[in-house]
Write a structure and sequence with these properties.
Layout lengths: L1 H19 L8 E5 L3 H7 L7 H20 L3 E8 H6 L2 H17 L8 E6 L7 H14 L6 E9 L1 H18 L4 H7 L2 H5 L12 E4 L18 E4 L9 H13 L7
Parallel strand pairs: 1-2, 1-5, 2-4, 3-4, 5-6
Helix pairs in contact: 1-10, 2-3, 3-5, 5-6
Enzyme class: transferase
Function: Catalyzes the condensation of isopentenyl diphosphate (IPP) with allylic pyrophosphates generating different type of terpenoids.
Organism: Actinoplanes nipponensis
Amino acid sequence: MWTTVKNAAYSLYARRLTAQLAGANLPRHVAIVMDGNRRWARQAGFADARIGHRYGAEHLDEVLRWCADIGVRHVTAFVASVDNLRKRDSEEVGNLLRMIEEVVAERLTRPSSVWQIHPAGRLDVLPDSTRHALKLAEEATRDNDTPFHLTIAIGYDGREEILTAIRSLLEEQGRAGHSVADVARRLTADQIATHLYTSGQPDPDLVIRTSGEHRMSGFLLWQAAYSELYFTDVYWPGFRKIDFLRALRSYAARRRRFGA
């Protein structure tokens, strides 16, 4: 009885939040730091906290449905940083990457999926199987006639991305016969942006981080310069639709200044 009442109240509140967002200024691009998988698993009573990675990876598929339903056309998901891959227990990292492979290969490339997939990060630091799954997903969804784009930030570090972009720009200009002095004199932010992992994608309007941490952790340092930030204490696998709608409501209530 109590569960029925609770579910009915939840559905009513979700509909109310959705109605509040009708006609509101919603973000075109939402970036998400999917944090708190292991803490969620421990809180849920699982003996092996690593199982949280499975729930977290599978939950991404559900959150993408919410985004598509409400019209958020660009999503960037921060899966793992370079430091995560290098410093955490190898068995835990292997488990996380297997979960990502399964979600990407089995769910996000199915015919019913509306998302075009774009990997972003140091793919060379990933195991062959993960790199292969991401490349196949990118190729399989490249020609999708869809306005929805998912960027998967994995093996990612924002400072390294900027450094790599500048190196790529200098190499390109050098091949064209330009000196370093020439490049420095004509260098613009837009030129650097075209060499980022996310080239061609709009900057995020809203960055959501779960788990209660209030920091960016090197995520989209260049792209999120003028993004609105939203932090929630909820762990990623427990991030509910009403939590998502609250983040959108918070965004809609803000007046963006873009550094002004």
